[in-house]
Amino acid sequence: MGTLTYGLEDRRVEIEDVTLAHLMVAIVATLTSDDSVLLWVHPDRLDGADRVQLLPSTPMRFSFDGPEPSSLDPRTVARLAVRLADPAGFTIPEHSTPR
Question: What is the pTM for the complete model shown?
Fold first, then answer.
């Protein structure tokens, strides 16, 4: 399990490494376009907060438990980018856990 750390309070969500690698590319591409990303996390998994808005100015770090996956599926990255652009937001995969 890798970790997405974000915000000034270093909030963390653990995400399976391969999913995190694809998500990292899609998030960076979205934020590079000066768009924001709205992430939804189940309320009882993130200190009662159920959504997080990532802006281009939001500090964030992607850490992998193992070596960063060397090959990514471009179709998966494209699908994630479309989902990240949805104004309704993107739901963090269920098998992820906040810390």
Answer: 0.80
**Segment 68-85, tens digit of pLDDT:** 777 899 999 999 989 888
Question: What φ, ψ does residue 61 adopt, rounded to 5°?
Answer: -140, 140
Instruction: Give, in degrees to the nearest 5, the angle at Cα 32 between 35 and 47.
Output: 60
SS3 31: helix
Residue 52, Cβ density class (10 Å: 0-12 exposed, 13-18 middle, ≥19 buried): buried
For 37-70, what is each residue's pLDDT tens digit?
888 765 555 455 567 788 899 899 999 988 877 7
Phi-psi region of 66 (alpha: psi -120 to 50; beta: other; left: phi over 0): beta
Kindly list the distances between the CA atom of residue 9 and the CA atoms of 29, 36, 70, in Å, as whole numbers in the listed order: 23, 19, 30
